[in-house]
Amino acid sequence: MDWSSDDKAQSLQDFKQLCDMWFKVKNTEKKLQHNYIMLWLGSEGLRLLNTWNLTVEQLEDPKNIWDRLQLLQPPQNFRIHRLEMQRLTQRTGESVEDFCTRCRTKAIKCKYTDKAAEDERVLEQLIAGTSISTVQRELLSRDRTLTLATALELAKSHEATANHMRQMQELTGTGSTIDAIRAKDSIACGNCGGKHPPRQCPAYGTTCSKCLRPNHWQKVCRSSTSGSTDRPGHAAQSLKQHKPRGRRRGRPGHQQGGRKHINAVQDISDDDPTDDFACLDFSSIETNNGDNRDELYVSLDIKYTMPASLRVKVDTGAQGNILPLRIYRRMFPEQLNPEGFPAAGATELRRTVLQAYNGTLIKQFGVITIQCKFKKTEWHDAEFFVTDSNGPAILGLPSSRQLKLVTVHCAIQTAAAPALKPVKNASDLERTYPDRFEGIGNFEGELHITLKEGAQAVVQPPRKYPIQLLDEIKSELKKMENIGVITPVTEPTDWVNALAFSRKASGGLRVCLDPRALNQCIKRTHHKTPTIEEITNRLSGSKVFSKLDAKHGYWAIKLDEESSMLTTFNSPVGRFRFNRLPFGLNVSQDAFQQAMDRILSQCPGTIGITDDVIVHGKDEEDHDRNLHHLMDVARKCGLVFNSDKCHIKTSQIKFFGMIYDLEGVHPDPDKCSEIQALPAPKSVTDVQRFLGIVQFMSPFIPKLSDKTAPLRALTKKGVNFEWNSSLQKVFDDLKASICKDTALSFFDVSKKTTIQVDASKIGVGAALLQDGKPIAFASKALTDTEQRYANIERELLAVVFGCTRFHTYIYGKHFVVESDHKPLEQVQKKSLASTPPRLQRMMLQLQHYDVTIQYRPGKEMILADSLSRLNPTPSKSISLEQSIYAVQFSSDRLQELRQKTDADPDLAALRDTIIDGWPDNAKLLPKRLRDYWSCKDELSVEDDLVLKGDRIIIPAAMQAYILQNIHAGHQGSEKCKLRAKTCVYWRGINAHIDDWVKRCNVCQSNLNSQQAETLLPHDVPTRPWQNVGTDLFHFDGKEYILVSDYFSKMPFIRRLPAQPTSTSVITALKQLFSEHGIPTKVISDNGPQYDSNEFATFSAEWGFQHVTSSPRYPQSNGFAERMVQTVKKTLLKAKQSNSDPDLALLCLRTTPIDSSLPSPAELLYSRNLQSNLPHLAKPTPYNRKARRNLQVRQQTQKKIPRSFSPRPSSTPHRPEGSDARKQRHMDTSNCRQQEA
């Protein structure tokens, strides 16, 4: 038994299998088998077996040993094994048979449902993980009838053929790979296409008429090579380098197969990704060892942990050194992560692109520096790129020259790459990049559409189509089929959608899906679309602009086969399915924007939203460089453009209804001209539509609210629509204001930012400023509820609105908010706990920002003052539900409280002052209100009541009634003050409470006497209802049990029989524990009811720890003793004052423990109990979420069909002899029992 194995489960399984084989071969008796097992288990297993204390009889049955060994196996998670299986690949030197065996072994642990599923999974991994590309192609070309056995035979045949070819090449010495130094004869010149002696190319010194670059002719120009080749995912930008042409051409038949030849290594700087590269021309190359073979291998001495050598192939056509990943793994096994790749920090990551001769990009894992030398040369630091390639280690030209492996006998001519061709218009661009304006796009990869769990497929019936459009629809479908967008479907499909079509702006027909049913089942992959605000500031300083349109936008994204089947649709000529992403799906915009963001992130000076792309530059040269780079990236990423919609090299550009130029951003005149031509509204809907356009153009219209007020009045409910001349004038003036060309400045992140805000009784406004110049405007009409806010609340609401509206600009940097309401400066400095509830919620929303609120007189903020009167179409309201509290009080008393507040002259005047705003000086207030000046920032109005923080201010006429309720439990002055502090307030309330308690005869007759001995406290628990104390007490001739929580001090009492027993005590405790949960510890004295076997059994069954106090020393249970005293005194006072004892206990439970602790009820239940005092109930996020879920549940229950038939429609079948039961139903009409 191999106890050192990491996989002990497999090791134990193998060990048992070997033992069983041995016993079967040797015919070993069963009772002797344990001796061999113990011998083969080794010393560690023997020590383990001795700990089991098995008898001789148990040992003679080997099953007892195997069963216990089986328990040593760690729990197996089949999902982990399935994930590991996905990563299995064929190792270097591993045969296909061995790789398949390794996959089978892992598949056994994956616990697939049956053998067929297991074989299918092994087959998939064989295809995905084999290192023989020809095997992959062959297997992928087969249909569903391919089995694992057939696939294995094919793979072994290919493997054997490859081995035979390798042996033949070694015997004949004629083998060659792409990354070898090529033979110089029988090769067509890459510059002219012909054959000629060295250094006699007729194309040298000429210019290509296609790409305008030197030293080659048009017929061999590679500038039109499609860039839609497979690109491995890596973060670097790819910019193709022009290689020296002529000698380094591959032999016929080697360009596409075999190993990849690294012929370009490009370092892309962070500063300018479009820097020109140098072109190196070589006349002849001579090696220093006279080897005449096509390939040259040498062994380099390297500095390693021990003297070692590295065999490399010298390749003068490579611009860098390559170290295959398999060699790296053998050299540096300690630097690998669990997946077998270089660990983080093991290599230096470079933004470098490695490109093979045929244009394929090679994935690299970073650079490692190795000190090496050749024979007697000096040591050199050679940088090797670690790549996932099958070829040998390669030493490129730079390192080969350093190590004096090659010498160049001709002069090296270095010439800067030719300047980029200027682009004057769209025609120039199309001639330079013709392939980028043909066909449809071809983005990398395929999109998979994920359905929601439980989605039900829908088949839409065929629709009728207009006869006059049938030919046009058929023609468009045929065109889409020809370019590969759709494919005919003949087999049955679960989903069949309807066909939809619309007219394009050009007059053509656009065919798309009507996937409303499908969209409801699609799980959307959300991707944020950039907003105008997020990208506008990037245009600052640009003078030259171009606009391009992505051709057939969504069709550039390919769908996988499963997703394609979901898009099957009916048509006049049969069913089709989309091979490309169709218009209409709810994932289309997200997927396309994500793909465009990935492409444009590689392109400097380029921004885009959906299919519109803007290229900009500070001058023409900068613009042209950015444009050429975009086209190069588009070629590689498969992006094509619509030449009819391209606007090249203009001084201003239209983008999403705005015009951008050097001066800033302006309204689009075309949009304005259409607005100017709008006819007068004929209905309320027309007015609302026009106000929507006004809202879109609102940043350019100052004082909009005054101009739109008459039109907004028409949209209110109950107002009859009647158009007249005065409304027509308002309408015309608004159109003129929209068409007026008012420029806004660009936002500069380096400048100081200010937001001016103001609030009126009907709206709030905000202006974003830098250097005193406007960046953006915003306004919001107040709802009816917001219009009833106090003045300070409206002003702070304006601050919150300005910050949230301009979040894109200000988030993450410090800025100043200017307001003409001076108290806001102090509100910001106060703690949240001391601010009124609504202001508290607003201040919490400002916690995300680094903001300073400063006072500025209103006369200096004309812009914000006018904006505060703006009232566009209703905008999104600011969520303040969490700050609106419900007043908990009986409805009659609450109405009385409102009436008495209205009748109280002081409170009525105070309420009006809060709503209208406080004066600048306390002397301007009436004398009766000056006492409130010091706490004016804490005052607010809610539900027609005046609040100080979250305490209701009680009018004078109800103060006596409230004092009586405060003292209902006959608690002392301090407790009564604490209780009042949680909910009610008026001037002098503490003095009134002291006087009330002193005049209470019951309280005076029950004053506390001096305590005889100190009670011993217990440790404070960590949570409510963790530890509870219990005790029995006698009051007024009756027996009671008290249970109190040590954490919250919450007391509960239950009535007991005249002679309490363990049974009655246990019954009372069970009732409490079933309501509040079982505590961890129950503490009591040693009374007979607790010190009994019955109670011990109860504590064991219910799972709590029972702790008793010391005999004849009840002070050790001091908490329960103290609670008994408090409860008995409360009940005694209630009896003497002839008041309700339960109400007195409620007052005790809802009174704060002290000034820093809430009431026992709030500590235990995390909420305040409704008592005889008015208070504000604070909703929690959990309450709101639960309420929404309850509403959904209620609506769902309403939809459940219910049958009230007296008998079921059918009786379920029961097997003969099974038990049957009878159920009796009560007839609610006449109480007659029916037997069912």
Automatic annotation (TrEMBL):
Regions of compositional bias (Basic and acidic residues) in chain numbering: 1213-1227
Name used for this protein in its record: Endonuclease
Compositional bias of kind Basic residues: 240-262
UniProt cross-references to PANTHER family, sorted A to Z: INTEGRASE CATALYTIC DOMAIN-CONTAINING PROTEIN, PROTEIN CBG26694
Integrase catalytic domain sequence ranges: 1020-1189
Keywords: Endonuclease, Hydrolase, Nuclease, Nucleotidyltransferase, RNA-directed DNA polymerase, Transferase
Biased composition (Low complexity): 1202-1212
Species of origin: Littorina saxatilis
